[in-house]
């Protein structure tokens, strides 16, 4: 038996759900490394604290956010954009940890996107009631790379629509350790998160954290 050949066999215990052309939900993909992801994340958040940003229209976002990587996504009265500096601390965003890059790139490969090398990770923290309204991820300069999105903590309802707002989004439950990947024909699909229901997760308590990996530059 050739061991290398055996290693390359897909793991059939993993459930993969196709969301649309080029979009997949990899059930439990990050579950076995959740403790490592969480301790790494705590270190990142200690350097760049979670905060509620303001929309260009002046509303406080219900999701608390931070970033790591070469650039971070920010929103304020002047609009949405990527910036190399954290406006809260005046410092560059913390580096993208190696284990984040590795996990995101493996998930992308599993979904059919080889050589995905993210340079930015947006950290979203949801408490009960927090939501993210339907939007497209449009601020990244590299439009060819997919988005890789990791869910940790409380489960949430992911709304995944199409390339136009008029396409009614489908609803998927995202669980701790699930990874969603969308790119290619579905790269600009509308998506969002329904208001988070209250609950308790053994690792994260009354919270959901989402990491989205992007190639922004
Ligand atoms: C996002 O669209 O940036 C985040 C989605 C999520 O929290 O799952
Ligand atoms: Fe998004």
Descriptors:
single chain; 217 residues; alpha+beta; Jelly Rolls; 8-stranded antiparallel beta sheet; 4-stranded antiparallel beta sheet; binds succinic acid; binds fe (ii) ion
Would you mind describing this structure in some detail?
- It is built from three helices and 14 strands.
- The protein has an eight-stranded antiparallel beta sheet with strand order 1-2-12-9-14-7-4-3, with helices on one face.
- With 217 residues, the protein is of the alpha+beta class.
- It has helices at 3-7, 34-47, 98-110, and strands at residues 16-20, 23-26, 51-54, 60-69, 72-76, 79-83, 120-126, 132-135, 147-153, 156-160, 170-174, 179-182, 191-193, 208-214.
- It has one domain: Jelly Rolls, CATH 2.60.120.590.
Helix percentage range? 10-25%
The CATH architecture can be named as Sandwich
Per CATH, the class reads Mainly Beta
Low-confidence stretches: none
Strand order of the largest sheet: 1-2-12-9-14-7-4-3
What is the succession of H and E elements? HEEHEEEEHEEEEEEEE
Distance between the termini: 44 Å
Number of helices: 3
Summarize the structure.
With 217 residues, the protein is an alpha+beta fold.
What is the fold's blueprint, element by element?
Layout: H1 3-7, E1 16-20, E2 23-26, H2 34-47, E3 51-54, E4 60-69, E5 72-76, E6 79-83, H3 98-110, E7 120-126, E8 132-135, E9 147-153, E10 156-160, E11 170-174, E12 179-182, E13 191-193, E14 208-214
Antiparallel strand pairs: 1-2, 2-12, 3-4, 4-7, 5-6, 7-14, 8-13, 9-12, 9-14, 10-11, 10-13
């Amino acid at each position: 038996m050739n061991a290398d050949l055996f290693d390359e066999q897909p793991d059939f215990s993993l459930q993969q759900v196709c969301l649309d052309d080029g979009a997949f939900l990899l059930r439990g993909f990050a579950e076995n490394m959740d403790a490592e992801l969480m301790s790494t994340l705590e270190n990142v958040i200690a350097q760049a604290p979670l905060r509620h940003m303001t929309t260009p229209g002046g509303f406080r976002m219900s999701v608390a956010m931070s970033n790591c990587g070469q650039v971070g996504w920010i929103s304020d009265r002047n609009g949405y954009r990527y910036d190399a500096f954290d406006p809260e601390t005046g410092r560059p965003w913390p580096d993208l940890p190696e284990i984040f890059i590795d996990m995101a790139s493996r998930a992308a490969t599993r979904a059919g996107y080889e050589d995905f090398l993210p340079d930015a990770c947006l950290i979203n923290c949801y408490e009960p009631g927090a939501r993210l309204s339907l939007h497209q991820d449009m601020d990244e300069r590299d439009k060819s790379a997919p988005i890789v999105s990791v869910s940790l903590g409380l489960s949430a309802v992911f709304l995944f629509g199409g390339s136009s707002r008029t396409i009614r989004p489908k609803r998927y439950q995202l669980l701790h350790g699930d990874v969603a990947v969308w790119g290619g024909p579905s790269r600009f699909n509308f998506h969002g998160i329904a208001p988070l229901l209250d609950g308790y997760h053994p690792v994260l308590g009354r919270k959901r954290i989402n990491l989205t990996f992007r190639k922004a530059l």
